[in-house]
Amino acid sequence: MEIPYQALSPDTLNNLIQELVTRDGTDYGDTEVSLEEKVMQVKLKLASGESVIRYDEKLETCDIQLKNG
Fold it and tell me: Which pLDDT value is given to residue 28?
């Protein structure tokens, strides 16, 4: 199920995004990108509709994914 990012409180949204961008194995290439920049990039993708928040009812987990992912 997709959840509009606007339905989440700002704190919940930030926590979800920070969890995503700090996961083990997340690679941003040769250039170091700050946590704030990573969070902003994800917020922009959510705002543009390129990414969505999906809730898995079976696992009771939330994730941010590319729209067609």
Answer: 61
Q: What is the pTM of this model?
A: 0.83
Q: What CATH number is attached to the domain comprising 55? A: 1.10.10.610
Q: What would the pLDDT profile of 35-59 be if each residue is shown by its tens digit?
A: 899 999 999 999 999 999 999 999 9
Give strand pairing partners of 64: 53
Rounded-to-integer distance, Cα 59 and Cα 51, Å: 20
Contacts with 25 (C-beta within 8 Å, 6 or more apart), sequence order:
none
Q: Is residue 28 part of a domain?
A: no
Residues 38 and 21: beta-carbon distance below 8 Å:
yes
List Cα–Cα distances, 28 to 31, 33, 56, 61, 67, in angstroms.
7, 7, 26, 24, 20
Q: Could you give the CA distance from residue 17 to residue 50 in angstroms, rounded to a whole number?
A: 15
